[in-house]
Amino acid sequence: MNLKRAIVEELLKHDILVEPEVVDYILEKGGLNYIPSFISKYANSGFITISSIAPPKPAVEIVEKQEGSLKKATEKSDLTRPEAYEHDWDFRVLIDPGYTQSSGKVDDFRALFLDRYKRLSKHIKRNFLIRGATEIKDITSGEIRVIGLVNDVRRTSKGSLTFELEDPTGKIKCLYRDEGFLLNDEVVGIVGTYREGSDIVYVNEIVRPGVRKARRERRIAEPIGAAIISDVHIGSKMFLRKSWEKFINWLKSGKDGAEIVKYLIIDGDLVDGIGIYPNQEEELDILDIYQQYEALANYLAELPDYIKVIITPGNHDLVRNTEPQPPLPSDVQKLFNGNVEFLSNPSVFSLHGYTFLTYHGASINDLVELIPGMNYERIEDIMKYMLEMRHLGPNYGGKVPIAPLPRDFMAIDLVPDVFVTGHVHAFSYERYKDVHIINSSCWQAQTKYQKMMNFNPVPGKVALMNFQKDTVRILSF
Ligand code: FE
Ligand code: ZN
Q1: DSSP H/E element including 7
Q2: 118 near 110, Cβ under 8 Å?
Q3: How many Å lie between the centroid of ligand 2 and the Cα of residue 314?
Q4: Separation of 474 CA from ligand 2 center, angstroms?
Q5: CA–CA dist 27, 17 (Å, integer)
Q6: 325 near 280, Cβ under 8 Å?
Q7: Dmax (CA) of the chain
Q8: How far apart are the C-alpha atoms of 62 and 60, rounded to whole Å?
């Protein structure tokens, strides 16, 4: 039997009628081997024309077989459109600080730290080690368990840690002889020994809030996902236009993995900005910040309109540096088309049931120095500590200004499925306790400043998250 006939007969067995050109198409795709996937795509489609499986067009007409008669029906989708086209968006904002303001009074700071204590102590109490914790005012001789905010961390000449622990009822001095570290302003539980009348607790155990993910099936039926990037830095002379355009063209192609991209997440530093560091104008290609955003908006306008773009700001963007940073202002937002969502930094949102926590990552510069053994090659280690501390940057008074709001938005309330940072222009991915940890790379070559700091960026990497498989692929452009 000739091959073409075999194909037609095979399709007929599944009630699929095709134009002769479709048979040629199937031959091109692999002949009989391609039949099973063709059938799974087009079963119950009735009569299939080549135009209905040709490259994307706005709307195609297909003929649908109904009740024995052939009836014309308009189908909104083209049968070979990328998978991402075929499915609806499922985007929900869970926590977004928005346009917050604070007067910066002492009382505001007290409220912020009290809120942090309340939020984080809740998680610590779940740890069996800390069961039966008391308030500091109630401690008596013997073994004690208390939860508090850490202050005044010092390391003694013998390598022990001394610190003060404070809860709403009081303060105690603590001494910890083991290895480990503590940051000022993190919330921990301690197990220790105390003798009434003395002024110090000997700490045996330090308990951080930590993350425990309730195991649940999070994979979805649809083969769709998100591309995750940050630090585009459009406007900079070091902007890597070639790689960037390669990336944009890949998204536009809807092929080679791009067919699953339903969302593009950009985690801050969209543009290089102006006046971010001394003499920046010498390294700028576009000197007007609005024109920088416009250049980005033009690229994003080229994307297929089934891709939703989620944009959060970073330290180079046109918002205050104090965290949480509000979404980009409306005069910037209006440069973009309707497919773009603007959120704060940090923010928590869900895509098809996957919880995303995105934070640009300014605190990483502090944490890399404060946490022993950290370096810029392994940002995932810092992100793991953030998760264990349940905080994106507890240390107040570092390089990152923090807004004293009545709610601590930097506390990690919800354990994310995907935790994204950027900012340091490195790249790392790791799966940690079922959380996909992504430090996304950049689209800017080494700057003078980075050269001076002896830092080599890792540009052009894209994390491609697949919601159906619950996996992350790393692509290079
Ligand atoms: Fe950046
Ligand atoms: Zn940054």
Answers
A1: helix 3-12
A2: no
A3: 5
A4: 21
A5: 16
A6: no
A7: 98
A8: 6
230 CA distance to ligand 2 middle (Å) = 9
Query: What's the pLDDT band for 21 if we cut at 50, 70, 90?
Result: confident
Question: Is the pLDDT score of 58 beyond 50?
Answer: no
Ranges 54-58, 123-127, 346-350: which has the least confidence: 54-58
CA of 228 to the centre of ligand 1 (A): 14
State in Å, rounded, how far the first CA of the chain is from the last one.
46
Distance 446 CA to ligand 2 centre (A): 14
Which-ligand-closest: CA of 459? 1
- Cβ atoms of 226 and 199 within 8 Å: the answer is no
How crowded is residue 427: how many other Cβ atoms within 10 Å of its Cβ?
A: 24
pLDDT 10s digits, 236-265? 999 999 999 999 999 999 999 999 999 999
- Closest CA relative to residue 418, chosen from 128, 166, 126, 94: 94
425 CA → ligand 1 middle, Å: 6
For residue 233, how far is its CA from the centre of ligand 1 (angstroms)? Answer: 7
Confidence of residue 73 (pLDDT cuts 50, 70, 90): very low
What is the number of the ligand closest to the CA of 455? 1
Two tokens at 381? 């280690």
Which residues are registered as beta bridge partners of 205?
191
pLDDT one-digit tens code per residue, 316-352: 999 999 999 999 999 999 999 989 999 999 999 999 9
Cβ atoms of 136 and 166 within 8 Å: the answer is yes
| Ligand 2 mean position, distance from CA 439 (Å) | 12
Contact criterion met (CB below 8 Å) for 95 and 358: no
Element (H, E) at 290: helix 289-301
> Ligand 1 centre from 423 Cα, in Å?
4
Residue appearing with tokens 């990328």: 82
| Single-letter code of the amino acid located at 402 | I
470: which 2 tokens? 């619950």
Statement: residue 55 has pLDDT above 80: no
pLDDT tier at 1, thresholds 50, 70, 90? low
Contacts with 107 (C-beta within 8 Å, 6 or more apart), sequence order = none
Assign 84 a pLDDT band (cuts: 50, 70, 90). very high
What distance in angstroms lies between residue 362's CA and the mean position of ligand 2's atoms?
A: 6
Q: Which residues surround ligand 2, an ion (CB under 5 A)?
A: 269, 314-315, 423
pLDDT at 67 over 50: no
According to DSSP, the residues that pair with 147 across neighbouring strands are: 189
> Could you report the per-residue pLDDT of 403-415, keeping only the tens digit for each?
999 999 999 999 9
Question: How far is the centre of ligand 2, averaged over its atoms, from the C-alpha of 200 (Å)?
Answer: 41
Nearest to 152 by CA among 130, 184, 179, 120: 184
Ligand at minimal distance from the CA of 450 is: 1
